[in-house]
Amino acid sequence: MIRESLQYIQDAYAALTELSMLIVDDHGAPVTKVSNMTELAELVLFAAEREAPSFFCPRELVIDGWQRPSVVPVGRFGMKSIVAPVFVDEKAEYWIWAGVFIEEETKWLICEQPLAAGGKWVSAIERSVALPARAVEAKLKDIEKMAVICGELISGERRKQQCCEYGKRLEAVVTDSSALADVDKLLFELRAFDERVDMALYIAKCPQGWMVAAASGEKAGKLRGKMIDALFPPLSSSKPPLRSVYVQDAALDPRFSFFVRHGIRPKAMIAYPAMYGKTMEGWVMIGSEAASSLPAALRSVGSALVQHWLLLAKCTEADMKMDRHLMRLSMLMEIGRAMRMVQNEEEIIRMMAEFAAELAYGDFVCVVWSSDGQTAVVHEGAMDVEMAVRYRDDVCRRYGCHGEKAKSEVPALLDVEGKSVMEVPFFVGDGRYGVLAVHIKKGREAKEAEVYMTALAAIGAMMISGKAHGGNDGTVNIDMLSEQLTAREMDVLELLIQGCSNREISERLFISVHTVKNHITNIFQKIGVNDRSQLIALVYQLNHRRQRR
């Protein structure tokens, strides 16, 4: 396609300048066929003896800084041609040869020279029209225009082909569900779009500012975990743009000193905003130390890929969160069934602490229980006895001996010795009350923890009040489970009891989701249950967790 277009342009300009024309590559190999073959041109191109397979080699003629068409000697003494570089992406990749002509000022001198080829050369020179200096200058300008047109044509066709290739790769990536499973794969795919891209980064927001959360590239890898300067554009903008940002000569911009300090001098960079709704999740950046510029198409293609990855990540996060909610709701149902089998209120309090540790998100759980004038404390996780006693005394001080205040109190976030704690009070009656306290690591998880802890406290209070008691006639020994199940099935069982989804079990045990499903099916068959709810109830009935410690 390009060759045909170049041939049309060459034919037109050969007719305009009345010169023979040919376009060759950097090695002198013809790209087009000769247009407007003249007698002198035919002698130079085909009749003259020459050692090289081509009539000239552009590399041998190139002069440093050669940017415009020039008149060069060719063939016999006094004969001239015009050679013009065709620039593609700032590099001379093709050359236009136009000739052969004789300058008016030197024709008489040429005619006096003895010619070894005899009559052909003499007759050709005599019939050729000698060009005055102004005519040669006009032809130089015409060929310079031709070189620009050819360069733009080739560049445009290459951009078109490049866009097609980018489009095919983008389609392949977005249709492969595993291609963008995490940010590292996103960075790999961005680098794979163009060989000139030698680094890719994901810059994420953290409490201290902006940090390189992921990096790809030989030099970029050492930037992982580093904090980005506050002046680093486009992070310094109070209202970040919704479009990609292209930066050229980044290493010469003081705002990019972060890279220079770490031995990286990017010449061109593109930054893509990772926006979810109106929230800025982070920035994805690609760059090159070798190339002075990057294709314009990378801006739009990269933006599409980054947004697709972000949406996939959010969907995956939502799926996992939904699975987690469903599992915790299922656990709450089984908690009631398991507690229904327990007659001792102390055992119910202990079970509340254990279940809260499974449902909560923090490092410790504490249950303070007051009954018949006696106050007890049960704690799980990273909470020592002294801290538990201090918390118990504080609860007694705030709620009083009879716990009447627990009737009207609602769950609240409190500071307990420097820790953020969700405190959920519950009241049973007759002076019996309790407080369920759960450490909250992240503030955004407080609301979710409040819902589950409130439900758990309500179930425990209901069971203690005697409104839903049941017998415990289970006679199965816990050792039966370890005898019936394999070691891997026991690992899966442990995570099932913790309320993990199939995907979470797969990630923790480094096995496929399909394998997890097979293990769960085997566990159900060996133990004789039909679903997870029955499994959790049976395991807690057998006091599985206490025996495992």
TrEMBL record:
Coiled coil location: none
Keyword set, alphabetical order: DNA-binding, Transcription, Transcription regulation
Record carries keyword DNA-binding: yes
An example Gene Ontology molecular-function term: DNA binding
GO BP, one annotated term: negative regulation of DNA-templated transcription
Keyword DNA-binding among UniProt keywords: yes
Record field: transmembrane: none
Domain HTH luxR-type: 478-543
Matches recorded under Gene3D superfamilies: 3.30.450.40, Winged helix-like DNA-binding domain superfamily/Winged helix DNA-binding domain
Protein's recorded name: HTH luxR-type domain-containing protein
Organism from which the protein derives: Geobacillus kaustophilus (strain HTA426)
Classification of source organism: Bacteria, Bacillati, Bacillota, Bacilli, Bacillales
